[in-house]
User: Fold these one by one.
Assistant:
Number 1:
Amino acid sequence: MDGTPKRPPERIKSLIRLIKNSGLYPQNPIVNSATTEPVIWVDGRDHLLFCSNNLLGLSNHPDVKEAAAKALNRYGLGSGGSRQMAANIDVHRALERRIAEYVGQEDAICFAAGYMANVGAIPAVLKVDFIEALAKVHLGYESTLPEEASVTPAWEIFSEELNHASVVDGVRLAKAKISKFPHKDMETLKAQLAASDSETKFIISDGVFSMDGDIAPIPRLVDLAKDHDALLMIDDAHGVGMLGPNGRGSLEHLGVSTSQVDLQMGTFTKAFGGVGGYIAGDREIIDFLRISARTYIFSAPLPPAVAAGVAEAIDIAEREPWRREKAMENARYFRREVQAMGFDTLGSEAHIVPVLIGNEMDAAEFTRLLRHRGIVAPHARFPAVALGQARIRFVMTCEHERDQIDFLLKCLGEARETLNL
C-alpha cells in the first residue's frame, strides 16, 4: 500500500461490505401485498406483521379508499407545484381544518411527511426575529435590509433526550443554543431553564416516545414552560388518534388543555392510515409558519387523493372508538404476558411495546428467528437507540387477534431459549 487515502466512494463501498458480512445490514423483506394488514405475503407465504403503523386499520377501509379514489379522479395524481404557487387545493385546506378541529386547536398546517413538519417548523419559529426586521423594511419603518443570521443567540432550545430524529434534525437546523435534558427528567430541565440567560426559551418533547412506548410528563412541561415564559411544542405523532377518552392524543390523555401547548405536531401515518404530517396551534402562529417553514414553501403538498382519504379516516376514527380501544387492549395484553415471561418492555404505556434484547448481534439473530417462524418484526438498534439497547419494537393494532398475539408470545419464548438469553 502506498498510504494514499481511499476516495470516499471506495471507503463507502468497503464499509457496506463489512456491515453486510457481519450480518448487521437490515434485511428488510420484499412484501407482495398491502403492508398495512396483520397478515402479509412474503417469500411465497403468509407472515404475521407486528410493526405496521396502521393502528386503527383505516388504510384499506372501503370508505377511505372511496374518498381517495374520488379525489384522484377529480384532481389527478399530484398537485403540480407548491401551495405557495397554484397548488393550494381545497382538499388540503379541508384536511387542515379537520385535523385542527379534531385535536382542539384553532388551525393547522400540513406537510408531505411528518419528518418535514418537524424539520420545517422548528427552525421556522426562530425566524420571527429576522422576518420581523424584514417586515419593518417593507412597511417603511426601516431603510436597510437585514441579513439572516447564521445563528440565533437570543434563543435556547431545550430538547428531550429521546426525541424523534426529525425533532433532533429540526433543532440542529434552528441554529440556536441547544440544551438536551435526560429522558423525562423534569428536575434537570427545571435547573437548565433556571440557569439559562437566553432571551427566548423553547421546550420540545415527544408525547409518546417512539422507541420506548412511554408517555412524556406533559403537565410538568406545561408548568415549567409557564414558569419560564417558554414556548412549548409536543410531537404527538404516536399519541393522536390513540390516547385519551376521545383519541385526541397525549394532551387529552393527561388532562392538558390544548391552549397550554403552543405547537402540537402529529402525523397521518399512524392512527389514520395515510401519510403526511401537520403542526396545529393558534391561527396566527400557523399563518406565520406558512411564510417561514421551508419544507412547506419549497415542497409539493400531500397528493390530493391522500388528503381526501385521511380526512375520511379521521371521521371514521372519531365515530368508531372500538378501533382505538381494541388496539390498546391488544397492547395491554401483550405487554402483560411478555413481562410475565421476564422480558423488559422499557416502561411502555401505549400501543408501542418494545422488548429489550440488548446486544445488536443478538437482536439481529432474534429477528431472523422470528422471520423463520413467519413473523415480521424488525429490531431497532443504534443509531435509532443507544448502543447495547437493541430491541424488537412491536406495534399492536386493532386488527390483531388474540391467537396471533399468543403465537407471537410462543415464538418469543422459543427464540430466547434458542439464543440462550
Number 2:
Amino acid sequence: MFERMKEKKKEVRVVRRIVLIVALILVIIIGIAGFKTYSYVTDALEPVDADSEKVITVEVPIGSSLDSIAALLEENNVIEDARIYKYYVKFKNESEFQAGTYDLVQSMTLDEITESLKTGKVYHEPLFTINVPEGLTVEEIAENVIAKKTSYTAEEFLKQIDDPAYIEELMVKYPDLLTDEIRGDNIRHPLEGYLFPATYPMYEEEPSLTLIIEQMLNATQSNVVPYQGVLEELEKSPHWLLTFASLLEEEATAQSDRQTIASVFYNRLEDDMPLQTDPTVIYAMGKHKERLFNKDYEFEHPYSTYQNKGLPPGPIANAGGSSIQAVLDPAKTDYLYFLADKEGKNHFAKTYEEHLKNRDEYIGE
C-alpha cells in the first residue's frame, strides 16, 4: 500500500510537470504571437522604405471608395497593409479623398500619403475632360458626349460597347460587376447602366475607346462593389441593383424622392403589383417622348413595367451614387402610387383613390 501511495505521488508530480510545461509553452506561443502581431502592425504603420526615392505613379479612379484606394496603395507597394491603413484612416477620422494621378514614394508616412490623397494634388493637368451626366442611356452618351468630346462617332462607340468579344474580355476583367445577366436575350446594350455618370479627366489627345469605357466601368465598380456584402445578404446581383437604381434615376428629382420612390417600388413588388413606371415604356419604345398616351401603355415589350411585373431585364439609364444608395436604404412608407406635377415635384398616395385626387389636383386634363 505504501508503494502504491509513492507511485501515485510520483504520477501526480509528473502530471504537474506536464501541465506546467504545457502552460509555459502556451504562454510562450501567445507571447510570440502577440509580439509578432505588434511588430507587424508597428511595421505597417511605418514607411515601406524610409530611404527610397523611387517615384511610384498611382491612378485613383473617380468614385473610388476607401477600400479600393487602400487596396490600390498596397498593390503598388506604397503601404504595407491595406487593412491596417484603412483602420488607421478611420481612426484618424480622415475622408473625402480625391481622384487623380499621384506621384508617391515608399518613404512617405501614412499621414503624408493621406494628406496627398485629400488635397487631390494632380501632378499633370488633363488635356480635356469628358462629363457624363446622370440618367443618360448609352445611346445618349454616344451621341451627346462621346461624339461631341472626342474624335469617335456615336456609331463607333456603340459598336465597341456592343462587341461580343470585347464584352467577353470585360467580363473576365470585372467578374464581380459584369455577370451573364448583361447578355440576356432582351438586353439592348450589355453595358447599359454600367457607364457611371461623372467627369473623367483625359491625359491623352486621342484616348482609346477602351480607355474611356473602362474608366467609366472602374467608377461603377468603385460605387457598387462596396455593397457586395449587402447584395449577398439580399441574394441580389449588381445587375439587379443597377436596374433598380436606373428607375429611381429616371423618376426622381431629389434624394428624398429617390428613397420614397424606392419604397413605392418595394411595396408594389411585395404586393405583386406591376411597377408601372413611364420611363420603362419610353425605353422600350426606343425614342424620347415628352408625354405618354393610353395607347403607349399598351405597347408590349419586355422592358415595359406596365405590361410586365417586376423589374425590367436590365438598366434603362446610368444611375448616380444617390440612386444606388436609395435602393439599399429606402424610406419606410405605405405608399403604392406617385405622380409628378408640372413642376416635376412628386406626390405620393397610399390608395388608388388618393392617387386619383392627386392626379386631378396636380395634373388635371
Number 3:
Amino acid sequence: MRQGSFQWMKSVNKSIILNKIRKDGPISRAQIARETKLTPPTVSSNVKELIDQKIVEESDFGESLGGRKPTMLVINDQAFTIIGVDAGPEHIECIVADLAGKVLKRSQTKLELPINSEQFLAALKRGIAECLDGTSDKEENIIGIGVAMHGVVDVERGVSLNAPILGLANIPIKEELEQAFGLEVKVENDARAMALGEYWFGNHGELESMLAVNVGRGVGAGLIIDGKLYHGFSDIAGEIGHMTIDLHGEICECGNRGCLQTFVTGPAIARKVTNRGAANPLTAETVYKLAVGGNRQFADILKESGQAMGVGLTNLIHIVNPEKIVLGGGVSKAEQFILPAIRETIQASALTPSASKTQVEVTKLGDDATLIGAITLLLVDLFELK
C-alpha cells in the first residue's frame, strides 16, 4: 500500500496554514501570518511547498492596504480525488469526489441477500472497481477510500464488528480493500461518517458541537465535539437506536424492549400501519406518499414517530447538549410530518428554555450525506494532525 503518500502535510505549521486556507480562503500570506501568529518567512516557505505539491494554488489579487495587491491562496480542490463508499444494507454506493466534496462519478451495486462476509467483500470490491474504471486520475492523485458501514466498527483496525441488518460480523474491510486497491482505507460507522460530512460540508457555520442522526432501517448518531468525532470508550458512541424509551414496548431485534428504533425506523412505521389494519403490507415510503396525498391516519402515524424521536433527542440534549441536531436517512424525507412533532416534543420536554430551542433540521446533503461523510474520513486524515 502507498503508506505515507501525504506525509508532506504532517507538520504542525503546514496543518495550521492548510486549514486556515481551507476555512478562510481566498486568503493572503500576510493575513495567514497575522491570524496564526506564524512568522511571514515560515508562512511563505510552507505555502511554497504546498503549492509545489499542488494542494494549494494562487488565485486572484486581493485588496491593497497601501502597497501592491496581495496574491490570494485557495485549496486546489481538483488536485486530488477520494473514493467514498456507503456500504449497505441493500446497496453498495460508491463515488469519486474532489476535495470540495463535488461528486465526479458514482456507481451502485445491489446486494443479493442473504449474504456472507466473502460475498459482501466481493460486492464492495466490484463497486469500487466500477467507480474507478475509466477515471482520468492517476493513481498517485487518489488519496484513499472512505467506507461508511452500518453497525459497530473497530475504527483502528477497520473491521466491521457487527452489521446487524446484514447479519454479519468481523468483516476485515480495511485489510481486504487495501490489499485489493493499494490505497489507504478508512472505515467508520455510517452515522458517525455522516456527522463528519455534515460538519465539513453542511454549511452549519462555526459550531462547537453537533449531533447528526441517521434514521432509515436503523437509527444511529454521530457526535461532534470541538470539531472532532466522538467514538466513546468501546467505539459504540452514537448507537441511540437502542436507547429504551418505553419499558413495556415492542421487543427490539437487540432483545430489549421499547428501543427508539422500534418507533421511528422505516420498518417500524410499516409495522404500525399493518398493526392498525392496513389491507396490504406497505413500505414506509408508500406510507409517506399516501400521507402527503391526504391520508390522515398515515400522517398521524408519522407524527407519532416524530414524537418518539423527540423523546429520544430530548434525552440526548440533556446528556450532551449539542448546539445543533441534523437528521438524515430515508425517514427524514418525511420531515413535513416528523420535524414539527420533534420540535414540539423537545420544546415541551427540555429542562431549560435554551435547551428547548435546540436547532433541529434535516440535512441539505440529501441522499449523499453518508457518501460525503465517507470521503470526509480521508479529508480529516489529510488536513488535520493526529
Number 4:
Amino acid sequence: MTSVRNADAGNGDWLVGNPTAAQLASALWIGSVGLLILGLQPVLLGALYTEGHVSGDELALVATAEMIAIGIGSAVVAMLLSARNMRWKSAILLVLLALANWATAYAVSPNSLIGARTVAGLAEGGLVAVATELIARSRRAERIGGYFVTIQTLAQCALALLLALYVIPAAGSAGGFIVLAVVCIASLAVAFIVPDNYADLPKEENFGNVLTVPSLTALLCVFCYFMFFGSVWAFLEPLGAQYGIDGRTVGLIVSASLAIQVLGAMTATVFEARIDYRFAIVAIGVVAVACSAVLVRSPSLTIFWAAALVMGFILLFIVPYQIRLAITADETRTAVLLVPAAQLFGLAIGPIAASLLIDGKDFRPVPEFAAASAAASVVMLGLFILVARRRRAIA
C-alpha cells in the first residue's frame, strides 16, 4: 500500500509527505471531477429548462442547492474527517456522485431534481477536498492550485463541447447527466492511484485556526470576490437581452469565456511566484469593478464581449493568490482547506443577493451589486493587511 509518509519524510517541495507526480495528478483529477458541474451548469441546466423540467425559479434553486452542497461537502471532509484511506473515500464519493447523476437523469419532478443535485453537491465537495488536502501540504500550494484549476477547466471545456454538440441534441439533458455518471465510474481507476494516507498537517487547534481575524478576513475576501462573479454570470443572458444582444450570442460569449478561463489559470501558474499576492488581488479587484461598471452603462456588443472575456480571465487567474492569502493568514494551513468552500458559497449567494435588487426587467442593479462585491473583496484584503501588521508589531 503506497502512502504519503509522515512529516519528517517530507522533501523540499512538500511540508509533509512526498507524493509522486502520478499520485499528485490523480488527486487533482479526482478534485476536478468534483467541479466539472461548474462549467457544465449552463449547458445541462439550460437543457433542463428548455425541456420544461423546471421553471426559471426552480432552475435557480437547483443550481444554488448544488453550489451550497459542494461548499458544505468540501468543508466537512477537509475539517472533520481524517486524511486516511483516501483511495476508498475517493472511490465511495465517485460512486455516490455517479448514482446522483443517474438519479438526476431520471428525476420526474423539481423536488427530486433538487434532492439529486444536493446529494451530488455533497459528493462533489468531498472530491474537491481530496485535491485541496494534498495541495495544502505543498510548499508551492499556489502553483499546484493553478495546475488544479487548469485541469478542471480544460475538462469542463472538453465535456461542454461534447455535450453541447453531440450528447444533448441526441439524448437531451438526461444523456448529459449519464455522461457525467460514466466519467465518475471511469475515474475509479484513478482513485486507486491517489495516496492512501496523507501525512498530517499541524491541526491541533483545528477550527480555532480559522476563527481568527486574519483567517476570517482572508476567507471573506475570497467569498466577496466570487460573489462578484457569480452574480454577473447568473444574469449574463438577461443583461445581454436588455442591451439588445440575443441569447445565441450570449451563449457564444459564455463558451469563449470558459476557454479564456483556461488561459487565465495557465497564466497564473507561470506568474504566481513573480507577483505579490496583495498586489494581484487589489489589481484584479479594480479590474472586476471596472468590468461591472461597464455592464451598467448599456455597452455595445463589442464592449460586452470584452467585459465578459476579461471577467473569465481573472476568475481563475486570482485563485493561486487567494491560496497564498489563506496560507499567510494561517500557517497551519487549516484556512486554505476552506478556500473552495468560500469560493462556492460566493458563487451560490451572489445570484440570490443580486436578484433581490432587480426591479422588473431592469437587470442593471446586478452589475452594480457585483461591483460592490468586488470592492468589498479589496476592503477585506486591506483589513487583513492591517491586522497582520498590528500582530507583527505586537510580536
